[in-house]
TrEMBL record, chain A:
GO terms for molecular function: acyltransferase activity, transferring groups other than amino-acyl groups. Keywords: Isoprene biosynthesis, Transferase. Residues 239-384 form the Thiolase C-terminal domain. GO terms for biological process: isoprenoid biosynthetic process. Residues 4-223 form the Thiolase N-terminal domain. This is Acetyl-CoA acetyltransferase. It comes from the Archaea.
Automatic annotation (TrEMBL), chain B:
Residues 62-124 form the ChsH2 C-terminal OB-fold domain. The lineage of its organism: Archaea, Nitrososphaerota, Candidatus Wolframiiraptoraceae, Candidatus Terraquivivens. This is Zn-ribbon domain-containing OB-fold protein. It comes from the Archaea. InterPro entries: ChsH2_C, ChsH2_Znr, NA-bd_OB-fold, Thioester_dehydratase-like. Residues 25-60 form the ChsH2 rubredoxin-like zinc ribbon domain. Coiled coil: none annotated. Gene3D superfamilies: 6.10.30.10.
Length: 386, 153
């Protein structure tokens, strides 16, 4: 048993896709991943479907997606880890190859959120929180959770609303350069700060989008990968961790402990340190989440995330370019698809195929995907070298 | 051009068992806040749990809380889920109880500009008989006027 590489990627346009069903949308990403790897459905040994669900008709989407994409009778599962479902699928596909049970595995992420109205989408997402003790009694929304985190971070470290807005400005800038992004519009700090309040202190431009989208990545064993492609992107390290669902049971609300633990595992497995990462996709469901991710992933000291964006260090050319595809904020956040789409972006960066958004000489990339308000975290480190 | 669609509706009603922490709900009705305390390791749980995740004991004692708490963080929710559309905006706070646990609840009877981290709060039971609603909420500790089973806020 050796290494595992990504040998094919697919990524649909994110946005409102009222023209397709969830099966048709997943098909687009699967087709692209098959074409990119030069493989056929019969080559795939195992498939993992990431989908949060509730917004769309299929309660049990995996078999219908597999059938629609001609992947029967291969083994499959659907995984769910809230907003980190996509990374959960990548990790499960990795295990299936790494264990030797199959040579080729496909991770598929898909979500169609626009089939319901916005209040219903807010309701379904809010139910990823503690339904019994937070959602049903108090209507705690996801902007609400991250607003609680933001208020605490601001009180403790002096992080400002301007710094939050700067994250949105950066991600909109890169989203405008990404043809697959939902929004193609640059914004200013002033515009972000003056946008309407969603959950104080978070405003509209601090929040990610409701999106439809799908992504797929093909993983292969070392032997197969070398035969399939000249540009395999190797999975070098993985880490995962969980934290309490009830936010009150956390010692420190201004940090996501699951990120700290998951990234430590991944760094340890690779021998890579945060300073060695050339490009990162971090979970910016809200601007505060990106600032906290800088800190919890070790890109800066705790409490200095606001300063890092203020100094422009997370732009291309800075210390550590982050979310240069637009992030969840501007590219979009189709829940189940996001972790797979982040993986596809890092693969593009490490292959040198990111065009105008290319981080020069990117050798090591990191994907950080959070489920709910830190209940789940998956960190995956990729390299051009194995 | 309007896209062709199939319209489909799903309504879900459910009943969630609360048998093992029934005393908590009875307590709220009587104007009391109960937490559970593990008889084996001494850990206090609020919201109450019937089992202790630390030592796996299911021998829990019920203890009455003072409600005394200190504010950690808060938000004002303007865009609410469908089921809360009648209520927004509302203030959600997390505060640390004197007895240990941090609790999330609404913070009522306060102007947003008067909220400060570290301020003293009181967690109080809330019972609205006509709606059969049982809950709890934070108020500023100096505002307390409560103890006879009915919330007077």
């Amino acid at each position: 048993m050796g290494k595992v590489a990504v040998v094919g990627i697919g990524h649909t346009k994110f946005g409102k896709r009222s023209d397709v069903t969830i099966r048709e949308l997943a098909f687009e990403a699967i087709k692209e991943a098959l074409e990119d790897s030069g493989l056929t459905p019969s080559d795939v040994g195992f498939a993992v479907v990431a989908n949060y669900g509730g917004f769309s008709e299929d309660m049990c989407p995996a078999p219908y997606i597999l059938e629609y994409a001609g992947l029967n009778p291969k083994g499959a599962m659907r995984v769910e880890a809230a907003c980190a479902s996509g990374s959960a699928a990548v990790h499960a596909a990795y295990w299936s190859v790494r264990s030797g049970l199959t040579d080729i595995a496909l991770a598929i992420g898909v979500e169609k959120m626009f089939q319901v109205d916005t209040p219903t989408a807010v309701e379904l997402l809010g139910r990823a929180g503690d339904v019994l003790w937070e959602f049903i009694p108090f209507g705690t929304t996801f902007p609400g959770y991250y607003a609680l985190i933001a208020t605490d971070h601001m009180n403790k470290y002096g992080t400002t609303e301007e710094q939050l807005a700067m994250v949105a400005v950066k991600n909109h800038k890169y989203g405008a350069m990404n043809p697959l992004a939902q929004l193609h519009r640059e914004i200013t700090v002033e515009e972000a700060i003056n946008s309407r309040v969603i959950a104080w202190p978070l405003k509209l431009y601090d929040c990610c989008l409701i999106s439809d989208g799908a992504a797929a990545v093909m993983l292969a064993s070392e032997d197969k990968a070398k035969k399939i492609t000249d540009t395999p992107v190797w999975i070098r390290g993985l880490g995962s961790a969980t934290d309490t669902g009830y936010l009150g049971r956390r010692k420190d609300i201004s940090t996501l402990q699951a990120t700290v633990l998951a990234s430590k595992q991944a760094y340890k497995m690779t021998g890579i340190e945060p300073k060695d990462v050339d490009v990162a996709e971090v979970h910016d469901c809200f601007t505060i989440a990106e600032i906290i991710a800088y800190e919890d992933l070790g890109f800066c000291k705790k409490g200095e995330g606001g300063k890092l964006i203020e100094e422009g260090q997370t732009y291309i050319g800075g210390k550590i370019p982050v979310n240069v595809d637009g992030g969840l904020k501007s590219k979009g956040h189709p829940i189940g698809a996001s972790g797979v789409a982040m993986t596809a972006e890092i693969v593009k960066q490490l292959r040198g195929e990111a065009g105008k958004r290319q981080v020069p000489k990117a050798e090591v990339g990191l994907v950080h995907n959070v489920g709910a308000a830190g209940q789940f975290c998956y960190v995956t480190i990729y390299g051009r070298e194995g | 051009m309007e896209q062709p669609t199939i319209k489909n509706t799903l309504n879900i009603d459910m009943e969630i068992p609360q048998t093992r922490i029934a005393k908590f709900w009875e307590g709220l009705k009587q104007g009391k806040l109960f937490a559970t305390k593990c008889t084996k390791c001494g850990e206090t749980y609020f919201p109450p749990t019937a089992d202790c995740p630390r030592c796996y004991s299911s021998n829990m004692n019920w203890i009455e809380l003072t409600g005394d708490a200190e504010l950690i963080t808060w938000t004002i929710v303007h865009v609410s889920p469908k089921s809360f559309s009648q209520h927004s905006p509302y203030i959600i706070a997390i505060a640390k109880l004197k007895e240990g646990p941090n609790v999330m609840a609404w913070f009522t009877g306060i102007k947003p500009e008067d909220i400060k981290a570290g301020m003293k709060l009181k967690l109080v039971p809330k019972y609205i008989p006509e709606k059969e609603k049982l809950s709890y909420e934070f108020i500023q500790s100096c505002n307390i006027n409560f103890r006879d089973g009915v919330c007077r806020l």
